[in-house]
Amino acid sequence: MKRNGSKYTLLLGTALLGLYFQANNAHAATTDSVANDKQPVAGNVTPMVQTNKDEASTPQTTTDWSDPVKYQQDIPVQILGINDLHGGLETTGSATIGDKTYTNAGTAARLAGHLDAAEESFKAANPTGTTIRVEAGDMVGASPANSALLQDESTMHALKAMNFEVGTLGNHEFDEGLAEYMRIVNGGQPTKQYNEAEMAYPHVASGINIITANVVQKTDGQIPFGMQPYLIKEIHTSDGKVAKIGFIGIETTSLPILTLYDNYKDYDVLDEAETIAKYDKILRNKGVNAIVVLAHTGVSTDKDGNTKGNAVDIIKKLYQIDPDNSVDLYVAGHSHQYANATVGSVKLVQAIYTGKAYDDIIGYIDPTTNDFAKDSLVSHVFPVLSEADAPNVKTDANVTAIVQDADRRVDPIINKKIGEAAKPGDILGRLHNTPTRENAAGELVVDGQLYAAKKAGLPADFAMTNTGGVRADLHVNDDRSITWGSAQAVQPFGNILRVVQMTGAQIVDALNQQYDEDQAYYLQVAGLHYTYTDQDDPNQPYKVVKVYDQNNQPLDMDKNYNVVINDFLAGGGDGFSAFKNTKVVGIIGQDTDAFINYITDMTNEGKLITAPVMNRKIYMTAEQLATADSKGSVVNNDQDNQPATGTQTGAASPNKEVSQPTPTTPSVVLPTTAGQPAKVIQLSGQIAPSASRADSNNHFVNLTPTTLNNATHQTAAKKQAALPQTGNTENLAWILLGTSLMGATGLTIINRKRKQA
């Protein structure tokens, strides 16, 4: 039995190792075949995600397109796509695609020229080919003035000139209600009075077929406004071939936290993956196997080649529901990022936002199967290059004329001076956040909202706004003037401001809700300042521990305070459920008007506009809080976030530039890493008067931005960042177990031989 036991142990160890390697090889083989051959994926196997490299800047210089010669019996099809245009008729900026960053990318006229050039390149190689232009939502909303003042109808004119055929709903299509969006899509007359420029603007049907499969009316489960869940396009070639391609439209299920309650309350948004699976099967039953999903769901491919996001998760769930699905292409939107990958056998793309890039996908449909031929579908994302960078690409004259006409119509409104800044230079917004998620334009906005409430006779204690509603830097001209257009670009939505009643506990809840979901949604605040620190909760790694009003008094958890919020937040927008069902004290008006009037009033009072000092959110480690407490500052570390008593210097009047608060211990904010908030390090010395600090020799040191920067970099250089653990620990356990059993067997055999000798 002893000898047999050794053999069995050896066999068991070998078997465990064999099972491990067999399982991993089988998994790799399965996912590889899915990615390359469009074979079904077993329901218990997650489809592999492979990033597709975009190294070329134009379709003409791309070398991996499928060879048309191999597919002469098939039908060439090109899909050109965009997402999240946001009325960006003249918007330019940087576009990072793959490993390259392109500057001065964008504008609608350049986009039109690039789409035309891409189509010409495709047709040159495929004379019988068909090009279909599609969009994945958010064509409108949060738009610059030359679109917003015309109810985004100028954007619809431009899309019509670019021959877009199929589109779906994004969350911003709901900004003024779905009825208003469908009016501008269909070219109907305005149903209410707008500005003179909009009322005189030509109302023309866009020609875009808007499809949505998962937005249904709560009353009867039907898709609203006669929209269809899918569209089947029949393709006829000049040489007599016929094929069909299907498009399914998908809205994000996050819609309820992304738009006003009144705009979505009548609708249900059904699960994305379940809806895709449903209509994929319907299309296949109709003989359509080449299927494209247009979905306003986010995804991104980072610089290390990792592709992840909601769209990836949806495709993976689709495979779990239906391993035999026939989805070939998924055109994503919403997250404003670049992406190009293959998930299972589905090509997944997203072309940044505001017309800075476009999707270009080319494949060949087998007319006998109505599906894309094996290995024929290739996807790319290309930048919309400026004339200087791509002089061979013509700027579209028709779209240029549409934009110039829109500019001419709105110029009298947007160029009107409304105020003056203390100095030239833009006041920066959310693309220039501090590590604690503050930005100057955002805090200027909430300062203005707090002012607007008091001006309206509705005294408010605090104001808060979602940073997603602060859309741009506040542009200040060289002569220090600020125009209507500049202010409107910062606050374009026209959300209604209301004053609501909230307890101190509810306010702390709202502030804490910034720190879930990796801080994807956060607030700009006025009238209060607070300190937050770490907590051992992966779902919410930070908690608020001290909150003070502008008089440096701690919040009373049971006291009622008046808070200015917009109606987007009042409906629980961006996941801020703490604002829902709060008692309305009064209505102020539109946020756009409040911001414009604030700039005008401050200027008239001689208080020229200045970027606020961003000191309203202070991060401290537990050690710093304890140190501050030991030196006499009142710190509360309990789990209920009850504010402590005591004083701390803080935010000043919202109408003037605020001064830096004096923390109990000198500190420096370390830069954020991996999307996490800043870390704060203590500086030696005692607190000096004003904004000075004492060094180790008791010499007072002014903590200027330069001083802070140097301290930050010196400290960061000394810290060794912990590397994330990689590998599969479960797999490692199997290897160790198998190896250990084999090793134990070997030792047993050796020992037995020694005894026999």
Automatic annotation (TrEMBL):
This is LPXTG cell wall anchor domain-containing protein. The keyword Zinc-finger does not apply. The lineage of its organism: Bacteria, Bacillati, Bacillota, Bacilli, Lactobacillales. Keywords: Cell wall, Hydrolase, Membrane, Nucleotide-binding, Peptidoglycan-anchor, Secreted, Signal, Transmembrane, Transmembrane helix. The keyword Repeat does not apply. Residues 48-65, 633-660 have a biased composition (Polar residues). The chain crosses the membrane at residues 732-750. Residues 48-67, 630-669 are annotated as: Disordered. It comes from Limosilactobacillus walteri. Pfam families: 5_nucleotid_C (PF02872), Gram_pos_anchor (PF00746), Metallophos (PF00149). Residues 723-757 form the Gram-positive cocci surface proteins LPxTG domain. InterPro entries: 5'-Nucleotdase_C, 5'-Nucleotdase_C_sf, 5'-Nucleotdase_CS, 5_nucleotidase/apyrase, Calcineurin-like_PHP, LPXTG_anchor, Metallo-depent_PP-like. It comes from the Bacteria. Gene3D superfamilies: 3.60.21.10, 5'-Nucleotidase, C-terminal domain (3.90.780.10). PROSITE patterns: 5_NUCLEOTIDASE_2, GRAM_POS_ANCHORING. Belongs to the 5'-nucleotidase family. Residues 1-28 form the signal peptide.
